[in-house]
UniProtKB/TrEMBL annotation:
It comes from Gibberella moniliformis (strain M3125 / FGSC 7600) (Maize ear and stalk rot fungus). WD repeats lie at residues 31-72, 73-116, 117-161, 162-205. SUPFAM superfamilies: WD40 repeat-like. SMART domains: WD40. Keywords: Repeat, WD repeat. This is Uncharacterized protein. It comes from the Eukaryota. The keyword Repeat applies. It holds the Pfam family WD40.
């Protein structure tokens, strides 16, 4: 976009100009704002929001579609180690656990703290909400005592304390079934304990790890649940018996470093941090699907997007990156013909691109091939997608804006304007279209 806006100012003697690579890597978007290491990531249950918790003592709420930071939450006095979303009947809330010994409950829509739970001064390392919707139940673990607390969030009280670990509990995870019957706790005592969350009793102790266990998480399948756990250079996959709830080790996978964060996609792919990369596995088969590069510093947390198309990773320098997930070992990045000045994500996983080739290709970002091409009379198009109608607006040096139906490639409308189009944008409700031209700005009702 910057290159396009200043194209007319490039001296004529500049003959060789930079271009966009035809082969695109996995990098999609940077989310910048934290000033220090980001240790925690969480996706909202509708997949629209991302929460990040940092050593800079703040939590940021991001709109994943636009990359916009909606709120910066600043009331913690210690670094933030864990964040978790819960959708109530009236409002969406976020919990954050901090080294300041508190768990803060936030109204996500308003960006304000509505309750503070105090952990007796002990730093909070991990928090997780039960998937049950009839009651807002939160499990938390802290440093030094190895205890797990079960909270009634609305009442602000500890209902139960689970105390069988002999060292710090680094990670907690509820099973995905609606009842949230199982709770797994990964500890530095080299064990994982499986708890009956309804009875608040220990079901099983998994002792196959020889080192501190840093991470544990359940797959989203209620019928055939899988548990993954990570310790020093080792990733273990456990199959959970749906009747007895006992776990059996299915695979032991080797890594280059300690996986400090794990995340399952809806289709059973497992992402784990491995130094400066994120590795993706088919958990059921125990096979390596691929390695996602794109970070230049150690990855501290990772989470799949709700649809499994993207993996989000955070790093020790505070940078959060949205990366394309590995689809299969044979998949390759989508290819565009010619230089691309503008890209727009459309509905249903499609992407539109424009460049200097008098064409707007529409791509399926999942299966990769181009599904159709819109031919235009001018080059160097800028694009905007209408969230209300699904239509695509394009503008160029030819001093007009055209409205297209990406589903058919048909021209719906054409707006004559005064000046070359440099930028286009629809309002969030899709009711207005704004344009910046070489002679100023203008907006229209749609």
């Amino acid at each position: 976009m910057t290159k396009r806006n200043f194209a007319e100012h490039i001296p004529e003697w500049v003959r060789i100009r930079p271009h966009v690579d035809k082969e695109w890597g996995p990098f999609i978007q940077n989310l910048e704002g934290h000033s220090s290491r980001v240790d925690a990531l969480a996706i909202s249950t509708d997949g629209q929001l991302l929460a990040s918790g940092s050593v800079d003592k703040t939590i940021r709420i991001w709109d994943l579609k636009s990359g916009t930071c909606l709120h910066t939450l600043t009331q913690h006095t210690g670094w933030v180690d864990s964040v978790a979303f819960w959708n109530g009947q009236r409002k969406r809330i976020l919990a954050s656990g901090s080294a300041d010994g508190t768990i803060r409950i936030w109204d996500v829509g308003e960006g304000r703290c509505i309750r503070t739970l105090r952990n007796n001064g002990s730093a909070v390392w991990s928090i997780v909400f039960s998937p049950r919707q009839d009651k807002c139940v939160l499990a938390s673990s802290g440093i030094s005592d190895g205890k797990i607390k079960i909270w009634d969030v609305n009442a602000g009280i500890v209902m139960h304390t689970l105390a069988e670990h002999s060292s710090n509990v680094k990670s907690l995870a509820f099973s995905p079934a609606k009842s949230g019957r199982l709770l797994a706790s990964a500890s530095w005592d080299s064990t994982i304990r499986i708890w009956d969350a309804d009875e608040n009793t220990a079901i099983q102790t998994l002792t196959y790890h020889n080192d501190e266990v840093w991470a544990g998480t359940f797959s989203s399948s209620a019928k055939n649940p899988i548990l993954a756990s990570g310790s020093k250079q080792k990733l273990k996959i456990w199959i959970v018996d749906p009747l007895t709830y006992h776990c059996t080790c299915l695979h032991t996978l080797k890594l280059d470093s300690c996986p400090v964060s794990l995340s399952f996609s809806e289709n059973g792919q497992l992402a784990c941090t491995d130094n400066i990369t994120i590795k993706v596995w088919n958990a059921q088969k125990g096979t390596h699907s691929g390695t996602i590069s794109g970070h230049s510093s150690q990855v501290t947390s990772t989470v799949f997007s709700l649809d499994g198309r993207f993996v989000i990773g955070s790093t020790i320098v505070g940078l959060i990156r949205v990366l394309e997930a590995v689809q299969s070992s044979s998949s390759s990045p989508g290819k565009f013909i010619g230089e691309q000045f503008s890209l727009q994500c459309l509905s249903n996983g499609y992407v539109a691109g424009s460049g200097l080739n008098f064409k707007i290709p529409i791509w399926n970002s999942t299966s990769r091939p181009s599904v159709r091409t819109i031919s235009v009379s001018g080059d160097d198009q800028v694009l905007a997608h209408c969230p209300k109608t699904g239509f695509l607006a394009s503008g160029s040096y030819e001093e007009s804006i055209k409205i297209w139906d990406p589903a058919t490639g048909g021209l719906q409308n054409e707006i004559e304007i005064d000046g070359r189009v440099r930028a286009l944008s629809y309002s969030n409700d899709g009711l207005r279209l704004a344009a910046i031209t070489s002679r100023g700005g203008k907006a229209w009702g749609t």
